[in-house]
Amino acid sequence: MNNNFFLSDHPLVKRDMTILRDKNTGTEYFRSAVKRISNILAVEIAKSFNLKKADIETPLEKTTGYKIDQEVVLIPILRAGLGMVSGFIEVIPEAKVGHIGLQRDENTLIPVEYYYKTPKDISDAFVILLDPMLATGGSASEAVNYLKKKGAKQLVFSCLVAAPEGLKKLSDTHPDIKIFGAALDRQLNDKGYILPGLGDAGDRTFGTF
Ligand code: PRP
Ligand code: URA
């Protein structure tokens, strides 16, 4: 097992992954299961946040609590990554959100860039890149390349389903990146889909069949 890969073994993640994989699950239940898994992944990732002490007053007296000591930036890879945003924001409401638009060419499987918008300075931020599917790893590796060029230093990638091929590619190209996932599947098929997988995450999230 890859040292940089955290695979959730939470019972609720296993239950919700089964809902996602089921071809009879409709868009509404698909989205809500993505959101619940994202909550749990967000909680796991947040264990690495730096905290700073903060003085506050309760209704009774002064005391000291904690605040997150750095900006947190969520960056979904369009489109399917958008489905994970609300689950992360629920747990990390202070997070900013950037967007990266990448689409795999269906024939070459090479990701083609079509949109980029992130906060201007992400050099001190804790950046969480979101995409439900780590298939060949091309999209994730390309997105990490870009964010590093923009100055990101503390960067993690979170997905729902990882294929061994994508995990290897992302870890080989970016050994410094931690990867958080809900499932590690068997392999890719000859069209670059993950097996057993859950199908096309973008289409299932947005109902674009
Ligand atoms: C899917 C998925 C990832 C990418 C994974 O997006 O959401 O971004 O494929 O594949 P890779 O690891 O082989 O690069 P897709 O290109 O289908 O676009 P969409 O989200 O707009 O449907
Ligand atoms: N993208 C998807 O949406 N599903 C896969 O199985 C692979 C890439």
Low-confidence stretches: none
SS elements, strand count: 15
Tell me about the largest β-sheet. 8 strands, mixed
Our Rg estimate from Cα atoms comes to 17 Å
Which sequence of SSEs, written as H and E, runs from N to C?
EHHEEEHEEEEEHEEHEEEEH
Number of domains: 1
- Reported CATH architecture: 3-Layer(aba) Sandwich
Number of helices: 6
Chain-averaged pLDDT: 96
Shape type: globular
Strand content: 25-35%
Instruction: For the record, give the distance between the C-alpha atoms at the N and C termini, rounded to a whole number.
Output: 35 Å
Structural class: alpha/beta
Question: Could you name the CATH topology?
Answer: Rossmann fold
Small-molecule binders here are:
1-O-pyrophosphono-5-O-phosphono-alpha-D-ribofuranose, uracil
> Helix share of residues?
25-40%
CATH class (first level) name: Alpha Beta
Can you describe what's shown?
It is built from six helices and 15 strands. The chain is an alpha/beta fold. It has a single domain (5-50, 69-206), classed as Rossmann fold. The chain has helices at 11-21, 27-46, 82-91, 138-149, 164-173, 201-206, and strands at 5-7, 51-57, 62-68, 72-78, 96-97, 99-104, 111-117, 126-130, 133-134, 154-158, 161-162, 178-181, 183-184, 187-188, 194-195. The model has no long low-confidence stretch (mean pLDDT 96). Strands 1, 4, 5, 6, 7, 8, 10 and 12 form an eight-stranded mixed β-sheet that branches. Strands 9-11-13 form a three-stranded parallel β-sheet. Strands 2-3 form a two-stranded antiparallel sheet. The protein is 33% helix and 30% strand. Bound molecules: 1-O-pyrophosphono-5-O-phosphono-alpha-D-ribofuranose (PRP) and uracil. 1-O-pyrophosphono-5-O-phosphono-alpha-D-ribofuranose binds at residues 77-80, 102-104, 109, 111, 131-140, 166, 192, 201-202.
